[in-house]
Amino acid sequence: MRMTTNANRRVTDEQIERARSIDLVQFLQQYEPPGELKRIGQSWTLKSHDSMRISADGRWNWFSQNKGGGDAIGFLQAVHGMSFQDAVRTLAGEDFKTIPTTQAEHKAKPPERAAFALPPKNNGNRRVFAYLHRSRGIAAEIINHCIKNDLLYEDAQHHNAVFVGKDENHNARYAFLRGTLTASHFRQEATGSDKSYGFFLRGSGKTLFVCEAAIDALSIATLRKFDGLDWKKDNYLALGGVTASESKLPAALERTLNTFSFKRVVLCFDNDAAGQTAARRIFTMLRQQFSENLEVQTCVPKVKDFNDQLCVKLQNGKNSPSRGTRESTLSR
Protein backbone atom coordinates (compact mmCIF):
# COMPACT_ATOMS: atom_id res chain seq x y z
CA MET A 1 0.00 0.00 0.00
CA ARG A 2 1.49 3.36 -1.02
CA MET A 3 1.74 5.98 1.72
CA THR A 4 1.33 9.66 0.90
CA THR A 5 3.46 12.42 2.42
CA ASN A 6 1.20 15.47 2.57
CA ALA A 7 0.82 15.60 6.34
CA ASN A 8 0.60 19.40 6.44
CA ARG A 9 -2.27 19.73 3.98
CA ARG A 10 -5.53 20.35 5.78
CA VAL A 11 -8.54 18.12 5.30
CA THR A 12 -12.17 19.20 5.32
CA ASP A 13 -14.99 17.95 7.52
CA GLU A 14 -16.54 16.43 4.41
CA GLN A 15 -13.38 14.46 3.69
CA ILE A 16 -13.20 13.25 7.28
CA GLU A 17 -16.84 12.15 7.22
CA ARG A 18 -16.30 10.32 3.91
CA ALA A 19 -13.17 8.62 5.24
CA ARG A 20 -14.93 7.44 8.39
CA SER A 21 -17.70 5.90 6.29
CA ILE A 22 -15.26 3.64 4.40
CA ASP A 23 -15.54 -0.04 5.29
CA LEU A 24 -12.10 -1.17 6.43
CA VAL A 25 -12.41 -4.77 5.20
CA GLN A 26 -13.61 -3.63 1.78
CA PHE A 27 -10.75 -1.16 1.55
CA LEU A 28 -8.10 -3.71 2.46
CA GLN A 29 -9.50 -6.29 0.05
CA GLN A 30 -9.17 -3.77 -2.74
CA TYR A 31 -5.75 -2.31 -1.99
CA GLU A 32 -3.64 -4.70 0.05
CA PRO A 33 -1.42 -7.16 -1.89
CA PRO A 34 -3.08 -10.49 -2.78
CA GLY A 35 -3.02 -12.88 0.15
CA GLU A 36 -2.29 -10.20 2.76
CA LEU A 37 -5.84 -10.20 4.17
CA LYS A 38 -6.88 -13.63 5.47
CA ARG A 39 -10.08 -14.89 7.03
CA ILE A 40 -10.05 -16.57 10.44
CA GLY A 41 -13.55 -17.69 11.38
CA GLN A 42 -15.71 -14.58 11.65
CA SER A 43 -12.73 -12.23 11.50
CA TRP A 44 -9.80 -11.30 9.27
CA THR A 45 -6.10 -11.04 9.97
CA LEU A 46 -3.03 -9.83 8.08
CA LYS A 47 -0.31 -12.13 6.77
CA SER A 48 2.33 -9.61 7.86
CA HIS A 49 0.75 -9.03 11.30
CA ASP A 50 -0.81 -12.28 12.51
CA SER A 51 -1.87 -10.81 15.86
CA MET A 52 -4.22 -8.44 14.03
CA ARG A 53 -7.95 -9.18 14.18
CA ILE A 54 -10.44 -7.26 12.05
CA SER A 55 -14.17 -7.87 12.47
CA ALA A 56 -16.78 -7.67 9.73
CA ASP A 57 -17.96 -4.27 11.00
CA GLY A 58 -14.46 -2.78 10.71
CA ARG A 59 -13.40 -2.93 14.34
CA TRP A 60 -9.77 -3.96 14.71
CA ASN A 61 -7.37 -5.03 17.43
CA TRP A 62 -3.62 -5.37 16.96
CA PHE A 63 -2.92 -7.48 20.03
CA SER A 64 0.88 -7.59 19.84
CA GLN A 65 1.00 -3.78 19.81
CA ASN A 66 -1.89 -3.22 22.26
CA LYS A 67 -3.65 -1.05 19.71
CA GLY A 68 -7.18 -1.08 18.40
CA GLY A 69 -9.91 1.06 16.93
CA GLY A 70 -13.22 1.24 15.15
CA ASP A 71 -12.46 2.90 11.83
CA ALA A 72 -10.09 2.74 8.89
CA ILE A 73 -8.44 6.07 9.70
CA GLY A 74 -6.92 4.78 12.92
CA PHE A 75 -5.94 1.55 11.19
CA LEU A 76 -3.90 3.34 8.52
CA GLN A 77 -2.27 5.52 11.16
CA ALA A 78 -1.29 2.53 13.34
CA VAL A 79 -0.33 -0.03 10.72
CA HIS A 80 0.96 2.07 7.84
CA GLY A 81 2.33 5.01 9.82
CA MET A 82 0.20 7.60 8.06
CA SER A 83 -0.62 10.96 9.53
CA PHE A 84 -4.30 11.69 10.22
CA GLN A 85 -4.48 13.92 7.14
CA ASP A 86 -2.89 11.36 4.83
CA ALA A 87 -5.16 8.61 6.12
CA VAL A 88 -8.25 10.76 5.55
CA ARG A 89 -7.20 11.71 2.00
CA THR A 90 -6.34 8.10 1.20
CA LEU A 91 -9.73 6.86 2.34
CA ALA A 92 -11.60 9.79 0.86
CA GLY A 93 -10.38 8.70 -2.57
CA GLU A 94 -7.84 11.37 -3.44
CA ASP A 95 -4.85 9.03 -3.41
CA PHE A 96 -6.62 5.79 -4.37
CA LYS A 97 -9.51 5.11 -6.70
CA THR A 98 -12.92 4.57 -5.13
CA ILE A 99 -13.86 0.99 -4.33
CA PRO A 100 -16.56 -0.30 -6.69
CA THR A 101 -19.64 -0.82 -4.51
CA THR A 102 -20.91 -4.08 -5.98
CA GLN A 103 -17.44 -5.62 -6.03
CA ALA A 104 -16.67 -4.56 -2.47
CA GLU A 105 -20.00 -5.82 -1.14
CA HIS A 106 -19.42 -9.17 -2.78
CA LYS A 107 -15.89 -9.49 -1.40
CA ALA A 108 -16.71 -8.34 2.12
CA LYS A 109 -19.64 -10.67 2.73
CA PRO A 110 -19.04 -12.02 6.25
CA PRO A 111 -18.27 -15.73 6.39
CA GLU A 112 -20.53 -18.10 8.25
CA ARG A 113 -19.54 -18.53 11.88
CA ALA A 114 -17.31 -21.55 12.34
CA ALA A 115 -18.34 -24.16 14.87
CA PHE A 116 -17.15 -23.27 18.36
CA ALA A 117 -15.26 -25.77 20.48
CA LEU A 118 -13.10 -25.29 23.54
CA PRO A 119 -9.48 -26.46 23.27
CA PRO A 120 -8.92 -29.80 25.07
CA LYS A 121 -8.11 -29.43 28.74
CA ASN A 122 -4.80 -30.40 30.27
CA ASN A 123 -4.84 -32.80 33.21
CA GLY A 124 -3.80 -29.98 35.51
CA ASN A 125 -3.49 -26.19 35.62
CA ARG A 126 0.01 -25.88 37.08
CA ARG A 127 1.48 -23.64 34.35
CA VAL A 128 -1.56 -21.40 34.16
CA PHE A 129 -1.62 -20.96 37.92
CA ALA A 130 2.11 -20.21 38.05
CA TYR A 131 1.88 -17.71 35.20
CA LEU A 132 -1.08 -15.79 36.60
CA HIS A 133 0.07 -15.88 40.23
CA ARG A 134 3.84 -15.47 39.96
CA SER A 135 4.22 -13.48 36.75
CA ARG A 136 1.00 -11.47 36.84
CA GLY A 137 0.36 -11.18 40.58
CA ILE A 138 -3.22 -12.45 40.53
CA ALA A 139 -4.37 -13.64 43.96
CA ALA A 140 -4.42 -17.43 44.33
CA GLU A 141 -7.97 -17.32 45.71
CA ILE A 142 -9.23 -15.60 42.56
CA ILE A 143 -7.42 -17.96 40.19
CA ASN A 144 -8.81 -20.99 42.02
CA HIS A 145 -12.29 -19.49 41.97
CA CYS A 146 -12.14 -19.15 38.18
CA ILE A 147 -10.80 -22.68 37.73
CA LYS A 148 -13.47 -24.14 40.03
CA ASN A 149 -16.22 -22.40 38.04
CA ASP A 150 -14.85 -23.52 34.64
CA LEU A 151 -13.98 -19.97 33.61
CA LEU A 152 -10.26 -20.72 33.34
CA TYR A 153 -8.11 -23.73 32.53
CA GLU A 154 -4.88 -24.86 30.87
CA ASP A 155 -5.13 -26.29 27.38
CA ALA A 156 -3.52 -29.66 26.74
CA GLN A 157 -1.57 -28.99 23.56
CA HIS A 158 0.18 -25.67 24.17
CA HIS A 159 -0.48 -25.06 27.89
CA ASN A 160 -2.13 -21.71 27.16
CA ALA A 161 -4.41 -20.06 29.65
CA VAL A 162 -7.97 -20.36 28.34
CA PHE A 163 -10.46 -17.75 29.58
CA VAL A 164 -14.03 -18.89 28.96
CA GLY A 165 -17.15 -16.83 28.31
CA LYS A 166 -20.51 -18.46 29.02
CA ASP A 167 -24.13 -17.78 28.16
CA GLU A 168 -27.05 -17.52 30.58
CA ASN A 169 -27.32 -21.33 30.71
CA HIS A 170 -23.63 -21.67 31.63
CA ASN A 171 -22.71 -23.06 28.21
CA ALA A 172 -19.31 -21.99 26.85
CA ARG A 173 -19.71 -19.62 23.91
CA TYR A 174 -16.39 -17.77 23.86
CA ALA A 175 -12.74 -18.49 24.70
CA PHE A 176 -9.62 -16.36 24.71
CA LEU A 177 -6.20 -18.05 24.73
CA ARG A 178 -3.13 -16.44 26.29
CA GLY A 179 0.40 -17.88 26.21
CA THR A 180 1.83 -18.74 29.63
CA LEU A 181 5.52 -18.24 28.90
CA THR A 182 6.63 -14.95 30.43
CA ALA A 183 7.98 -13.59 27.14
CA SER A 184 5.11 -14.93 25.04
CA HIS A 185 2.90 -12.49 23.11
CA PHE A 186 0.51 -15.19 21.95
CA ARG A 187 -3.12 -14.07 22.25
CA GLN A 188 -5.97 -15.45 20.20
CA GLU A 189 -9.69 -16.09 20.35
CA ALA A 190 -10.81 -19.67 19.84
CA THR A 191 -12.33 -20.34 16.42
CA GLY A 192 -16.08 -19.75 16.40
CA SER A 193 -16.08 -17.60 19.54
CA ASP A 194 -19.09 -15.33 19.96
CA LYS A 195 -17.79 -11.94 21.14
CA SER A 196 -21.15 -11.05 22.61
CA TYR A 197 -20.20 -13.41 25.45
CA GLY A 198 -17.07 -12.08 27.10
CA PHE A 199 -15.15 -13.43 30.07
CA PHE A 200 -17.56 -12.58 32.89
CA LEU A 201 -16.91 -13.06 36.60
CA ARG A 202 -20.32 -12.80 38.23
CA GLY A 203 -20.65 -11.35 41.71
CA SER A 204 -23.51 -10.76 44.14
CA GLY A 205 -23.46 -6.96 44.00
CA LYS A 206 -24.55 -4.25 41.57
CA THR A 207 -21.19 -2.87 40.38
CA LEU A 208 -19.72 -3.96 37.04
CA PHE A 209 -16.05 -3.36 36.23
CA VAL A 210 -15.50 -3.44 32.45
CA CYS A 211 -12.01 -4.20 31.15
CA GLU A 212 -10.25 -4.90 27.88
CA ALA A 213 -8.71 -8.24 28.87
CA ALA A 214 -9.42 -11.03 31.33
CA ILE A 215 -6.10 -10.50 33.12
CA ASP A 216 -7.08 -6.86 33.70
CA ALA A 217 -10.37 -8.02 35.23
CA LEU A 218 -8.59 -10.46 37.56
CA SER A 219 -6.06 -7.74 38.43
CA ILE A 220 -8.84 -5.37 39.52
CA ALA A 221 -10.40 -8.12 41.63
CA THR A 222 -6.99 -8.68 43.23
CA LEU A 223 -6.46 -4.97 43.88
CA ARG A 224 -9.83 -4.80 45.60
CA LYS A 225 -8.97 -7.84 47.68
CA PHE A 226 -5.70 -6.20 48.74
CA ASP A 227 -7.67 -3.11 49.73
CA GLY A 228 -9.70 -5.20 52.17
CA LEU A 229 -12.84 -5.23 50.03
CA ASP A 230 -15.02 -8.23 49.21
CA TRP A 231 -14.09 -8.81 45.59
CA LYS A 232 -16.78 -11.50 45.23
CA LYS A 233 -19.52 -8.88 45.55
CA ASP A 234 -18.50 -7.23 42.30
CA ASN A 235 -18.88 -8.20 38.67
CA TYR A 236 -16.01 -8.18 36.18
CA LEU A 237 -16.37 -8.26 32.39
CA ALA A 238 -13.54 -8.54 29.85
CA LEU A 239 -14.46 -7.50 26.32
CA GLY A 240 -11.56 -9.20 24.53
CA GLY A 241 -10.21 -5.87 23.26
CA VAL A 242 -11.88 -2.53 22.64
CA THR A 243 -12.98 -0.50 19.67
CA ALA A 244 -13.70 3.18 19.23
CA SER A 245 -17.19 2.96 17.72
CA GLU A 246 -19.21 6.10 18.38
CA SER A 247 -22.60 4.48 17.85
CA LYS A 248 -22.51 0.86 19.04
CA LEU A 249 -21.62 -0.59 22.42
CA PRO A 250 -19.27 -3.59 22.48
CA ALA A 251 -21.41 -6.68 21.98
CA ALA A 252 -20.39 -8.33 25.26
CA LEU A 253 -21.14 -5.20 27.27
CA GLU A 254 -24.50 -4.69 25.59
CA ARG A 255 -25.55 -8.29 26.22
CA THR A 256 -24.38 -8.22 29.85
CA LEU A 257 -26.28 -5.00 30.59
CA ASN A 258 -29.42 -6.41 28.99
CA THR A 259 -29.13 -9.68 30.92
CA PHE A 260 -28.21 -8.54 34.43
CA SER A 261 -29.11 -5.55 36.58
CA PHE A 262 -26.42 -3.12 37.73
CA LYS A 263 -26.40 0.22 39.52
CA ARG A 264 -22.85 1.22 38.64
CA VAL A 265 -20.52 0.57 35.70
CA VAL A 266 -16.82 1.41 35.93
CA LEU A 267 -14.85 1.50 32.67
CA CYS A 268 -11.29 0.34 33.37
CA PHE A 269 -9.50 0.51 30.02
CA ASP A 270 -5.80 0.80 29.25
CA ASN A 271 -4.04 4.12 29.69
CA ASP A 272 -3.31 4.56 25.99
CA ALA A 273 -4.93 6.35 23.06
CA ALA A 274 -7.07 3.39 21.94
CA GLY A 275 -8.22 2.53 25.44
CA GLN A 276 -9.12 6.05 26.49
CA THR A 277 -10.83 6.89 23.20
CA ALA A 278 -12.99 3.81 23.63
CA ALA A 279 -13.66 4.71 27.28
CA ARG A 280 -14.87 8.21 26.37
CA ARG A 281 -17.17 6.96 23.64
CA ILE A 282 -18.60 4.07 25.64
CA PHE A 283 -19.07 6.41 28.62
CA THR A 284 -21.11 8.77 26.42
CA MET A 285 -23.23 5.97 24.98
CA LEU A 286 -23.95 4.52 28.43
CA ARG A 287 -24.95 7.92 29.79
CA GLN A 288 -27.28 8.41 26.84
CA GLN A 289 -28.85 4.95 26.91
CA PHE A 290 -29.00 4.33 30.68
CA SER A 291 -29.09 7.86 32.08
CA GLU A 292 -31.83 7.32 34.66
CA ASN A 293 -30.79 4.14 36.44
CA LEU A 294 -27.06 3.60 35.93
CA GLU A 295 -24.07 5.41 37.40
CA VAL A 296 -21.20 5.39 34.91
CA GLN A 297 -17.58 6.09 35.84
CA THR A 298 -14.14 5.69 34.34
CA CYS A 299 -11.01 4.62 36.19
CA VAL A 300 -7.66 5.16 34.46
CA PRO A 301 -4.66 3.09 35.61
CA LYS A 302 -1.63 5.02 36.82
CA VAL A 303 0.54 3.00 34.43
CA LYS A 304 -0.29 1.22 31.16
CA ASP A 305 -3.01 -1.11 32.48
CA PHE A 306 -4.34 -2.50 35.74
CA ASN A 307 -2.14 -5.57 35.68
CA ASP A 308 0.92 -3.32 35.47
CA GLN A 309 -0.54 -1.31 38.34
CA LEU A 310 -0.98 -4.47 40.38
CA CYS A 311 2.58 -5.62 39.63
CA VAL A 312 4.00 -2.23 40.65
CA LYS A 313 2.06 -2.41 43.88
CA LEU A 314 3.43 -5.87 44.62
CA GLN A 315 6.99 -4.83 43.75
CA ASN A 316 6.69 -1.98 46.23
CA GLY A 317 5.63 -4.42 48.93
CA LYS A 318 2.09 -3.08 49.04
CA ASN A 319 0.38 -6.44 49.03
CA SER A 320 -1.91 -6.10 52.01
CA PRO A 321 -4.74 -3.71 52.97
CA SER A 322 -2.68 -2.17 55.78
CA ARG A 323 0.20 -1.25 53.46
CA GLY A 324 -1.65 -0.56 50.22
CA THR A 325 -2.70 2.70 48.63
CA ARG A 326 -6.32 2.68 47.63
CA GLU A 327 -7.26 3.51 44.04
CA SER A 328 -10.09 6.02 44.41
CA THR A 329 -12.68 4.47 42.09
CA LEU A 330 -11.67 0.84 42.59
CA SER A 331 -12.02 1.15 46.36
CA ARG A 332 -15.67 2.14 46.39
Keywords:
single chain; DNA Primase, Chain A; 5-stranded mixed sheet; globular; disordered N terminus
Report on this model:
With 332 residues, this protein is an alpha+beta fold. It folds into 2 domains: 95 residues, Zinc finger, CHC2-typedomain (DNA Primase, Chain A, Alpha-Beta Complex), CATH 3.90.580.10; 190 residues, Dna Topoisomerase Vi A Subunit, Chain: A, domain 2 (3-Layer(aba) Sandwich). 33% of the residues lie in helices and 18% in strands. Strands 1-2-3-4-5 form a 5-stranded antiparallel sheet. Strands 10-12-11-13-14 form a 5-stranded mixed sheet, with helices on both faces. The protein has a 4-stranded antiparallel sheet with strand order 6-7-8-9. β2 and β3 form a beta hairpin. α1 packs across α4. The protein is globular, with a radius of gyration of 21 Å.
CATH topology of the largest domain: Dna Topoisomerase Vi A Subunit, Chain: A, domain 2
- Number of DSSP E strands: 14
Q: Judging by the overall fold, what is the CATH architecture of the largest domain?
A: 3-Layer(aba) Sandwich
What's the shape?
Answer: globular
CATH level-1 class of the largest domain: Alpha Beta
| CA gyration radius, whole angstroms | 21 Å
User: What oligomeric state do these chains adopt?
Assistant: single chain
Largest sheet report: 5 strands, antiparallel
Measured by DSSP, the beta-strand proportion falls in 15-25%
- The low-pLDDT segments are 1-8, 95-110, 320-328
Strand arrangement in the largest pleated sheet: 1-2-3-4-5
